[in-house]
């Protein structure tokens, strides 16, 4: 059903994108202004979201003409992610993102080369339109109506729309079907890929793809709402746009502390046996005593100040070495576990 | 890369802010929350022949009852205990005092209790449920080697029958 609609939708939107990309080159500066305006708009909407888009803004200023390339990359990217998730290779996603971080300096230059490729190769635009297959028609129309600018941002919306629409279908059985349906959703995303592979710039594109989502993921990860998030990723993406889903935004990102606690309660069910607070990721990766008795860092510190014995086995804690090691471990572990746990949730 | 630096710094500030609010919410009444949880756990799964609940509005002041276990001279007696939680509970042990007089080598005339887990062996991992279980255990098996009342302990070691007789008499007198 979806793949049918893609072929219909893709051709007009592809031509649209072509036009847009030309316009963009002409009015890069105008675009900057509009980006700024839009950014401010977002600023007022939500603190977390604005973080994402500010980074986008800095990105754009780094590489002036990025947006068209970036749009493609971003849309591609989501497909990539979804396919990865569908295959149950959630770990791969995080790995991709990490290695992408290193390769990111290349992005500005690759994307500019992509721009050239954009005009000639419609296969690119194909991929973007296919990603926004279900509701892509209205979105691309949207872009052209809105002076054809805002490339990056509107593309976010297009992808978001697509994903949201995709998700709406799954909503009947969100937990179970989430795993399987991305498979369906990813099939149209896969089809254009071989074409890209044959294309010279296509491979470049693939290499530089995960740029945008990486930023999103990082920003979301920084709010710590990310873990619960990966599963509901399509839900969060509309939050970046001007969709109706702002209540959901507020629920997840709005009150930082509360939502964070809630999400940690979801992913780490066990609680500290001393204070009965839920163990967060740092706490649950913290093993102060060889007997295996776990407790939260607050209680551990408290006990160290007093009798410094393990509550479980009542042996004295080995003070400095264990604690120092543990804290370093905890620090380094935190981020890794954040990304990993999100993929685990996506699977379960 | 520029963007990367900005990202990491902003994320760290967010984390600090979130952590800050989190700390403040926990430190308000960590012990109160813990006591509350213990109360609900105790109500859900009370140890045999024991009960405990806050005296009034004050979560930190409980009354507990322990029924003398069958097969001991304390059988059938209802022993009331006062439990006072320190403000830094569970890092400090609760204070448990017998309000009912009992003839026992580990309980003195004022009702004070010599129980290792309520003193040096206290662990924050222990709960009031475990304390009550331990108290019930010393009804069955008094510890005459670390007595509070050495006379009773001596009698217990020398003439258990006599000791039990007196204990049963006290139980009948004070605990029924």
**How many helical stretches of chain A?**
19
Task: Tell me the fraction of residues in β-strands of chain A, as a range.
Answer: under 5%
Shape of chain B: globular
* Average pLDDT over all residues of chain A: 52
Domain module count of chain A: 2
Helix percent of chain B reads 40-55%
Assembly of the depicted chains: heterodimer
Count of structural domains of chain B: 1
Description:
The complex is a heterodimer of chains A (348) and B (176). Chain A has 348 residues and is mostly helical. The N terminus and C terminus of chain A are likely disordered. Chain B has 176 residues and is an alpha+beta fold. Chain B has one domain: Ubiquitin Conjugating Enzyme. Chain B contains five helices and four strands, in the order H-H-E-E-E-E-H-H-H. Chains A and B meet through helix 3, helix 13, helix 16 and helix 18 of A and helix 1 and helix 2 of B.
What would the keywords be for this entry?
heterodimer; A: 348 residues; Herpes Virus-1; 2 domains; B: 176 residues; alpha+beta; Ubiquitin Conjugating Enzyme; four-stranded antiparallel β-sheet; 45% helix; disordered N terminus
Structure summarized in a few sentences:
The complex is a heterodimer of chains A (348) and B (176). Chain A is mostly helical and 348 residues long.
Topology record:
The complex is a heterodimer of chains A (348) and B (176).
Chain A: H1 2-26, H2 28-45, H3 47-62, H4 66-86, H5 90-103, H6 105-120, H7 122-131, H8 133-145, H9 151-170, H10 174-190, H11 192-198, H12 200-208, H13 211-223, H14 233-240, H15 246-254, H16 256-267, H17 281-284, H18 297-305, H19 319-347
Helix pairs in contact in A: 1-7, 1-8, 2-3, 3-13, 4-6, 4-7, 4-9, 4-10, 5-19, 6-7, 6-12, 7-11, 8-9, 9-14, 11-12
Chain B: H1 2-28, H2 30-44, E1 50-54, E2 61-67, E3 78-84, E4 95-98, H3 128-140, H4 150-158, H5 160-174
Antiparallel strand pairs in B: 1-2, 2-3, 3-4
Helix pairs in contact in B: 4-5
